[in-house]
Amino acid sequence: TSIFSAVELAPRDPILGLTEGFNADTNPNKVNLGVGVYYNDNGKLPLLEAVKAAEKTRLEAAPARGYQPIEGLGAFNTSVQNLIFGTDSPLIKEGRAVTIEALGGTGALKVGADFLKRLYPSSKVYISDPSWENHRALFESAGFTVENYPYYDAATHSVNFAAMKAYLAALEANAIIVLHACCHNPTGADLTAEQWKQVVAVIREKNLIAFIDMAYQGFADGITEDAVALNLFAASGLQFLVSSSFSKSFSLYGERVGALTLVTENKEESARVLSQVKRVIRTNYSNPPTHGGAIVAAVLSSSALRQQWEAELATMRERIRAMRISLVEKLKEKNVPQDFSFVVKQRGMFSYTGLTAQQVEQLKTEFAIYAVSTGRICLAALNTKNIDYVATATASVIG
Ligand code: PLP
């Protein structure tokens, strides 16, 4: 018999399964709102001009492809710290931030999870209810037990902060709390700066460990504005972890560019932490690939390219916002009974629309519009050509 005969077929990834169904659909009006990527107004995945320019320069320089250091490209790691904390951050000056280049935001979360498991083997991990669909499996695969903390309130389409705070305040010391820095996936509902202050206070008081996931910096209000949670944690003097993803903000999904930053007590502690994080990396994938990090570092460290990138990021952010506003207006024009104005308040690429699983199914079978059964839609999949069709279909299934 085969050495693999006991292997059972794993369940299909629900979102990838949706895309397979979409690809096979022959309806010319089909729309895939289930995706987790940014499409431009032509419904295409963009290659940013700033990225193109940095790639051209790199291609002409034709650098050799030696191994990178275990922690990745130094220039990339420095650029990431400057981006997330600001160039004047005392954290950086005092050597309290350790950054390693990771394989996307997912890779950063996994390196952080593996490191924390060695340090706090009996801690539990707490993720928001609901959260990005990979958070639970990722921390479980690092060996943790994962629980949900209260987060989204479907009735108000926003965060039930009182419940979240009360839950965190009752947790055991060294519990690991995964927080979305901005543009919460899947709900689009974020904490206010005032609420973040209270989260920092609870984390300090209860000796909890914050792991902040920042996959959409620049997609809500702007690069610095979206770092409000990070800045509050930075100012608190606490130690914490941050995973960054450049998949969306640089439209570099397949290049797998991300970073893990650990904020320590002092420079000497940073050296010890880095040495242990490097052991985690060495035994997983040894060192990260060269291309994506080099491109992001080149863009962030050239003032011209950085300016160009910021403008392109603003275009993505503003287009998503325009789609939110337009969708709400169109639904109103069609006299739907519900008030959808909350969609404009939600931030980032996603919205929990409140559509039921049955309505989502109807959108698919009657209109070839694909969405996740939870009612999550990706606003960045809407454009000026398909939004009327989507609004009409939505009004029809809820009417
Ligand atoms: N964290 C959140 C909240 C996300 O939404 C995503 C991607 O969808 C990730 C992490 C993973 O990012 P990456 O694709 O860079 O691994």
UniProtKB/TrEMBL annotation:
Organism equals Rugosibacter aromaticivorans
How would you summarize the oligomeric state and partners of this protein?
A: Homodimer.
Enzyme Commission designation: 2.6.1.-
Molecular function in Gene Ontology = identical protein binding; L-tyrosine-2-oxoglutarate transaminase activity; pyridoxal phosphate binding
State the superkingdom: Bacteria
Keyword set, alphabetical order: Aminotransferase, Pyridoxal phosphate, Transferase
Q: Which GO terms describe its cellular component?
A: cytosol
Q: Which family does it belong to?
A: Belongs to the class-I pyridoxal-phosphate-dependent aminotransferase family.
Q: Which SUPFAM superfamilies match?
A: PLP-dependent transferases
* Name used for this protein in its record: Aminotransferase
Any one GO biological process = L-phenylalanine biosynthetic process from chorismate via phenylpyruvate
Task: Identify the residues that the record assigns to the Aminotransferase class I/classII large domain, covering every copy.
Answer: 29-392
**Cofactors required:** pyridoxal 5'-phosphate
